[in-house]
Amino acid sequence: MEITLKGDREFEEIPSLKNKALRINLNENIYGTFAEIGAGQETVRQFFRAGGGSGTIAKAMSAYDKDFSDAIYGMEDDGRYVTEARLRKMLAHEINLIEERITRDKHPNKMFFAFANTVTTIDFAKQYKGHGWVGIKFQIEPDQPYNDIVLHLRFKENDARLQQETLGILGTNLIYGAYYKHHEPKKLLRYLYDHLDKDQLEIDTINFSGPAFKNVDNRLMSLQLVKNSMTDAVMFAPDGNNVLPARVLYKKNILALRGSFRPVTKVNIDMFQKSYDMFIKENKVDADNTQVVFEITLSNLRAEGEIDEQDFMDRAKLLCSLGHTVLISNFQEYYKLVEYFSQYSKNRMGLAMGVNNLVDIFDEKYYRHLSGGILEAFGKLFFKDLRVYLYPMEDEDGTIINSENLKVHPRMKELYKFFKYNGKVVDITEYDKSILSIFSRIVLKAISEGKPGWESMLPEGVAKIIKEKSLFGYEAEEVVHKNS
């Protein structure tokens, strides 16, 4: 055992890897297959070393050769091997073999599992650090339907052997967690990093399914990944499911809108539509290869210092129901968001934002931690093929503020002019002037206080969703009257 002082596991004894594997091995009812491709057989090695594995390890295999792997699991339509689809085929195939070959008459109390991974480690040039899919399909009661935990990881270490060892530790933590922490999925998630450090690997996608996880919302679990600093960002598709950011953003033109979206208003949608219309007319932008992302930073999810998970769910559900892809990130500064996108695409990018956001970008206080200060940040922000689409703001006296008359700090004037007159900042001109006075905070206050009229400030259909799902503290009229 070792004592940790990290986070909410303060002074808690963490079982050693050997003890975790041994506890699995000594449970006479846990029985399954290990199928590992791409980085050795590092997970099953932990269980062999722990001892007592003869009653647990049905089979350990590693179909390294692609032709042989295809003969076992079938060919993938895209010809790739390190994919979620490949991993799920492996899990299903190995479970089917166990069910076919081990009779329930002889082993009525066995809880079957299949553990699998398909990964690629760092290349010889050390330019691509590697990534992989890891998963387990398992039972927690004999003859019950199976549960799945599937995750995607990115290696951070610069040595293939170290990456292999890291994978083995993660795999052991996953199997142990599946059997002994499935009733506490948030803890299971944190315990995946037992005996690991966050500079060894990043987990950027995870999905739980099956009867053991019937009450688990995978969007909330993804939020935990960002909240626990396991990854910098997670993404949800319009259907509300977690998706791998790399798959969505790879080689795409990207247009991003940052906001609180609490709730999404007519202004947000007008900004999106008008900036999108301008973006797809740009050179080197293909509408069929363009991905729009609605991004919410972690700081925008905090209420009085803590993340309000229900509030987060309300925003995610609403945006997804409107057909948008949502990114939750811990990037406070815009240049970090652009750097993140640049991992996956070198194509043209756009940022749609309001006047206040742009003014904040030119505030030096956000860049004091950088040795090169604001110039370093702007080099990272505008070095890529990026353009800012600026949505105007109406001042208290009715003046429309845009890129021509906004005020930045006097020391930043010349820097701002440089980017402005080099075409990096362009005004959205075809905006709806009648909605400029709409702000999310006003709508939210009206909803929580039961005041009328807020519905007209939202895009068509949004108010109906808020009422039907009781989002953002909305209470039906009859409830409000009853309590008043």
Describe the protein.
With 484 residues, the protein is an alpha/beta fold. It folds into 2 domains: 2-216, Maf protein (Alpha-Beta Complex), CATH 3.90.950; 246-435, Rossmann fold (3-Layer(aba) Sandwich). 36% of the residues lie in helices and 21% in strands. It contains 17 helices and 20 strands. The protein has helices spanning 17-26, 42-50, 66-73, 84-101, 160-180, 185-191, 218-227, 245-249, 266-279, 309-321, 334-342, 355-361, 373-382, 413-420, 440-449, 462-469, 477-483; strands spanning 2-4, 12-14, 30-37, 57-61, 111-120, 131-138, 147-155, 201-209, 233-236, 242-243, 253-258, 290-297, 302-303, 306-307, 325-329, 349-354, 386-391, 393-394, 400-401, 425-427. Strands 10-9-15-12-11-16-17-20 form an 8-stranded mixed β-sheet, with helices on both faces. A hairpin with a 7-residue loop joins strand 1 and strand 2 (12-14). Helix 1 crosses helix 5 (160-180) and helix 2 crosses helix 5 (160-180). The model is unreliable at 478-484 (pLDDT under 50).
